[in-house]
Amino acid sequence: MKPVIEAIRIRRSLRSYTGEPLEDWQVDNLIKAFMYAPSAMNWRPCHLIVVRERETLQKLSKATPWAKMLERAGAGFVIVGDEQKSQWWIEDCSIACEHLWLEAADMGLGACWVQVRGVEGAEENIRNLLGIPEEMRVLSIMAVGVPKKTKPPHDESKIEKERLHFEKF
Ligand SMILES: Cc1cc2nc3c(=O)[nH]c(=O)nc-3n(C[C@H](O)[C@H](O)[C@H](O)COP(=O)(O)O)c2cc1C
After folding, report:
1. Does residue 36 belong to any structural domain of this protein?
2. Is residue 8 a part of any domain in this protein?
């Protein structure tokens, strides 16, 4: 296990995977990372659908124009929010997504966020495919796999002075 800042440094959007399945312990850790995330008022509106079947991953890879990497992912983690349970479901689900992403990076896996909310037709496609109730919202899918290609970690060039403020804007 690395320090948190190290997982943050090495986390990248990796979209190329070997196609190997994830191991059960890796999936367990990713579930924990997601479920241990904070939520506003502790209302916990976030649901997680773990998809490991290749046929479903292939269908999901066509659900948005930017989801192709799911074809060869080891698993896809579909992030669903209960809008009726919390008006802050987007914030809560986004934090939980990032937890999962950092845990994937820490385990040496590649991961990438696939945006669903607001992408035309995508939510509907996924709702039909996975039997998600009408009143639930789909934020995103996290594609996770054994990386075929990696990317360099972040470095201090990302600390853009024009975006950094102290005391006042
Ligand atoms: C809200 C959000 C939506 C994103 N949607 C997609 C997507 O649909 N498909 C994709 O390939 N990458 C997606 N990404 C990944 C970004 O392109 C990526 O984070 C960005 O280029 C920075 O690269 P890095 O993650 O390697 O630091 C998304 C990232 C975020 C935070």
Report:
1. yes
2. no
The number of domains in the chain is 1
Question: Is the beta carbon of 117 within 6 A of some atom in ligand 1?
Answer: no
User: Hey, which bits of the chain come out as E strands?
Assistant: 46-51, 75-82, 110-115, 136-145
pLDDT in tens, 5-15: 999 999 999 99
The strand pairing partners of 75, in sequence order, are 144
Helix axes 89-106, 24-35, angle to 10 degrees: 140
Q: Is residue 4 part of a domain?
A: no
Residue 2: is its pLDDT beyond 90?
Answer: no
pLDDT tier at 1, thresholds 50, 70, 90: low
Question: Could you tell me if the CB of 114 is within 6 A of ligand 1?
Answer: yes
Which run of H or of E encompasses 10? helix 4-10
Q: What average pLDDT score do residues 79-84 get? A: 98
What is the CATH classification number for the domain harbouring 98?
A: 3.40.109.10
The model's confidence at residue 124, banded by pLDDT at 50, 70 and 90, is very high
Ligand 1 centroid to 23 CA: how many Å?
25
Range of the domain at 34: 20-148
